[in-house]
C-alpha cells in the first residue's frame, strides 16, 4: 500500500507500508527504539491487550486485522510468546522468514548454536557482549540431547548467517538430521560456519572413577544432571554402609589408582582430543596441556570448566570479529556440577587445585557456594542411597 502523508520530519512523502507490528508491549518499544525509521512503514499493530494507537500507529486485534499476507509481520514478543504466535500464524498458512519474523532478529545477523551444555554457556557469554548484541541475534534451539524433533528447521538453517555447532557425526545417537553432514548442507553459501569442541568423555583422565548411569532430577525448567556415578563412593558405601562422614572422606582420600594407568589414560585422551581438534575451528588442546596443573580445565568427565570455556568463547568472539569479554564467570552455571579430584590423581599430575568449582548454585543449600569434598560425598550418598551422612553415622 502506498499512501501520502506528512512524515515526522514535516514533509509530505509517498510512504510504502511494508510491515505489521504484532505486539505493542516492551518488545515492541525495543524494536521501534532500535529501528525508529520503520514507524511510518507500519500499517497497523496487532494486539489483543492494548487499544488505540502505538506511537501513532493504529492498534487492531488479530480478528480485526486484514490483508496479513500483504505485509511482513514483525512479532515483537519474548521468545515463549513468539512461539505461540508463530503457531497461530502458521495455522493461517504463513511461513517464518517469508511472511513473518521474530522482531529481535530484525536487521541483525542470525546466529544458530547447535550444541549441548557448553553451547548454553556460549550463548550466555555472547549475550553479555554489547558488540555482539548490537550486530547479532541468537535464535533459540534446544540442546542436542533435548531436541525432541531430532532436527533443526530447514528454513532456519537456510536463513542463518552464523552457524556454531559441535562436531556432530553422522552416526550420533540423536539422529542424522542433527549431524554436521545434514545441517551444513542446508546453510547458505556465505554462512559463517564455526565448529566448537565436543567435550563428552574428554575429562575421563582427570576423573577416572566417574561412570554412568547419572543421577538426574526433573524440574519445571527441564531435567538437570546432579551427579555421575562415582566408583570410589560406591565402593565406600559397600564397605562402610551407614558410617560417619569422616570415614567416607578418609576412604575417598585413600582411594588409589596406579600412576601407569593415569599416564596411559592422559595420553589416550589428549591424543583423541588432538585427532578431533582437526575438525574444529576452536583449538583447545594446547591450552589444556599448558594449564591443567595450575587451573581446572574440566569440572567432571564431560564438561569444561569456566576457564576452558572462556578460552572457547574468546576464540569464537575473534571469529565473529568482536572483542572478548574478559569476565569468565558468566558460564559456570551451565557447565555441570564440579567433582572433587581424587588425592592420588592430584598428587600424580601435580595439580594445584582440589575442586574445579566456581560458586555453583547448591541444590540443597540454595545459594552459590564452592563445593567441598565433604558436601560432595554427603549429597552423593543422599541422591544414590537415600541416607544423610553426619558425624555420628547417618539418617535414613
Write up this protein.
By secondary structure, the chain is α/β, with parallel strands linked by helices. The chain folds into 3 domains: 2-105, 3-Layer(aba) Sandwich (Rossmann fold); 109-196, Rossmann fold (3-Layer(aba) Sandwich); 210-395, no CATH class. It is built from 13 helices and 18 strands. The strands form 6 sheets. Strands 5-6-4-3-7-8 form a 6-stranded mixed β-sheet, with helices on one face. Helix 3 (117-127) crosses helix 11. The chain is elongated. The termini are far apart.
* Beta strands, count: 18
Structural class: alpha/beta
Biggest sheet, in brief? Answer: 6 strands, mixed
Percentage of β-strand residues = 15-25%
Bin the helical content: 25-40%
Q: What's the helix count? A: 13
Residue ranges: pLDDT <50 for 5 or more in a row? Answer: 1-9
* Number of discrete domains: 3
The general outline is: elongated
Please list the strands of the largest sheet in the order they lie side by side: 5-6-4-3-7-8
Mean pLDDT: 88
CA-based gyration radius: 26 Å
Any descriptors?
396 residues, alpha/beta, Rossmann fold, 3 domains, 6-stranded mixed sheet, 4-stranded parallel sheet, 13 helices, 18 strands, 20% strand
Amino acid at each position: 500500500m502506498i499512501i501520502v502523508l506528512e512524515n515526522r520530519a514535516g514533509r509530505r512523502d509517498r510512504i510504502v507500508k511494508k510491515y505489521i507490528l504484532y505486539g505493542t508491549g516492551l518488545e515492541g518499544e525495543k524494536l521501534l527504539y532500535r529501528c525508529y525509521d520503520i514507524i511510518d512503514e507500519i500499517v497497523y499493530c496487532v494486539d489483543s491487550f492494548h487499544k488505540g494507537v502505538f506511537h501513532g500507529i493504529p492498534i487492531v486485534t488479530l480478528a480485526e486485522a486484514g490483508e496479513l499476507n500483504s505485509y511482513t509481520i514483525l512479532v515483537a514478543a519474548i521468545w515463549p510468546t513468539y512461539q505461540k504466535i508463530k503457531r497461530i500464524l502458521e495455522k493461517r498458512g504463513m511461513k517464518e522468514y517469508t511472511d513473518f519474523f521474530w522482531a529481535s532478529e530484525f536487521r541483525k545477523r542470525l546466529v544458530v548454536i547447535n550444541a549441548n551444555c557448553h553451547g548454553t554457556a556460549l550463548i550466555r557469554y555472547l549475550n553479555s557482549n554489547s558488540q555482539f548484541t548490537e550486530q547479532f541475534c541468537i535464535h533459540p534451539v534446544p540442546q542436542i540431547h533435548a531436541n525432541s524433533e531430532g532436527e533443526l528447521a530447514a528454513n532456519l538453517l537456510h536463513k542463518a548467517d552464523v552457524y556454531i555447532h559441535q562436531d556432530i557425526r553422522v552416526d550420533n545417537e540423536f539422529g542424522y538430521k542433527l549431524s554436521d553432514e545434514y545441517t551444513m548442507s542446508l546453510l547458505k553459501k556465505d554462512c559463517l560456519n564455526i565448529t566448537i569442541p565436543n567435550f563428552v568423555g574428554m575429562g575421563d583422565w582427570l576423573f577416572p572413577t566417574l561412570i554412568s548411569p547419572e543421577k538426574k532430577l526433573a524440574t519445571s525448567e527441564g531435567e538437570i544432571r546432579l551427579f555421575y556415578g562415582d566408583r570410589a563412593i560406591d565402593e565406600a558405601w559397600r564397605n562402610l554402609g551407614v558410617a560417619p562422614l569422616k570415614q567416607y572422606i578418609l576412604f575417598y582420600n585413600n582411594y588409589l589408582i596406579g600412576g601407569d594407568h593415569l599416564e596411559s589414560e592422559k595420553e589416550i585422551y589428549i591424543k583423541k582430543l588432538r585427532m578431533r581438534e582437526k575438525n574444529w575451528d576452536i583449538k583447545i588442546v594446547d591450552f589444556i596441556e599448558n594449564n591443567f596443573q595450575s587451573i581446572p580445565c574440566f569440572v567432571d568427565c564431560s564438561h569444561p570448566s569456566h576457564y576452558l570455556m572462556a578460552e572457547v568463547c574468546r576464540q569464537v568472539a575473534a571469529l565473529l570479529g568482536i572483542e572478548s569479554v574478559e569476565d569468565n564467570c558468566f558460564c559456570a552455571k551451565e557447565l555441570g556440577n564440579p567433582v572433587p579430584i581424587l588425592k592420588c590423581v592430584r598428587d600424580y599430575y601435580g595439580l594445584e587445585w582440589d575442586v574445579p568449582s566456581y560458586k555453583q548454585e547448591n541444590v540443597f543449600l540454595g545459594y552459590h557456594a564452592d563445593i567441598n569434598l565433604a558436601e560432595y560425598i554427603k549429597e552423593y550418598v543422599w541422591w544414590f542411597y537415600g541416607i544423610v551422612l553426619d558425624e555420628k553415622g547417618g539418617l535414613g
